[in-house]
Amino acid sequence: MYKLEVTLKQHTPLIHFQPDQEGATLRASEVKPKLDRFILTRLGEDSAYQSKRDEIARAIGDEYNNLNSYEKGKFIAQGLGWLIGNGEQPALDYKMKIIPLNNNKPDQYIIASRLSINQQNLLVQRNYKVINFSPYFAQEKEYSQLFIRINNNYQLRNDFRNKLSMLSKKGIKYDKIKCEIVSFNEPLLKYITDILPEFFIVENFGTRNGKGFGSFTVFSMKLNGVQQEINNDVKSWLTKNYDFVYKKTCNGQDPFQIIQKDYKLMKAGYNRHEGYQKSLLFLYFAKQNIRWEKRWFKRKIKEFGYTLKQDVNGDPIDINLKQSWDDTKCAINSDDTECPSNSDDNYYYIRALLGLAEVFDFLTNNRSVKISVKVNCNNKLERFKSPVIFKIIDENIYLVGKDNIPIQFLHENSPTFSIFKKVNNTINQNSEIHLDPSIKIPNEFSLKDFVSFCMKIVKSHYLSLTGYTPLKK
Question: What is the dihedral sign for C-alpha 251, 209, 97, 182?
């Protein structure tokens, strides 16, 4: 039996569903399948195994040209005797165990997107660690149950500690953790040793890992008791594995607040309380004479007789700042090349390209009533994760991604939409209105081009993403 002992440095909290469980940490059941896929994909590309790929090509003929790198890697691993199992996702022949170093206890974090400063201070004063204004929204209802509002101020409920202990997820962070990998296959374990530091630079783990949570790097390694040299070449490995990489230094700021602000600017834009700013995705498509779904939703809601909260004067509703809700005013006698026509054909569900949402809520003049637009996905379209990924390593944020969105698949399997009335955050099922015909996800999009646009857009008062430096291979 051969053994690889690894010490991992943890850079950001891991959002864990069993944070109070003894020994709760990064789960081998999540890491191993990701590492297996990473290794098999690399085998399918590694120049050292070109002769093996040539053998596969001769053996299976024309079918070889339809294989991706991962599928080629499976054939190679099978030939090397590295695989166990014959299913769709066979596993590599090693075992992994991850435990806290010296059985130490982690710091626990309450991670929220919009606690008030008053609420945050109440928790901090009682020595709880809080990450606020972060890109994590799943537990807002749970957090609200910790507080009671009295005379326009929040106070912690008497049983808040009990409610805190019942939170479905918390952030946990160790300084370092230990990972042990064992195998009877020495060449496989040597290959893992060579590739593991790169793997942890490239991947994040746990809930909301695309927004910087669950970031680890290899701190030290021993292979069969022999210390291995570690060189965490962040720039080379990120540019090797992603189609674009941008770097930003935190300069003492909370990295999650930076990520939340930057990603919101990219996808949704800022509301007037944040300093009004159109979504950069909206602006990108407006240049192509394409409007986004938000305006289409509002128009349909109005058509079915609902009255939405009035837009604040000065908040433009379209790329053309003179635009009104009457689309024809844009189409008639207009020389504005950025003013799309009034046809529904110009509307697309563009925000889906940065990750599918489940519902959109719109305010009315009645604070207890909202109008919800539900996204109905067919069985072929699973929840599409945002292709924009943020890595946090030390004091740096890396914005990375691959320009391989399955755009045609998304377009052909575009969801439909239904309107519901929501009273006191409860949907009235009898109020459903199905929007038919619907709008589709665009069938052309370059993520790399869009992110480049986000970095350099200059148009009157519109903002761009700032502080990022492009890293090149």
Answer: negative
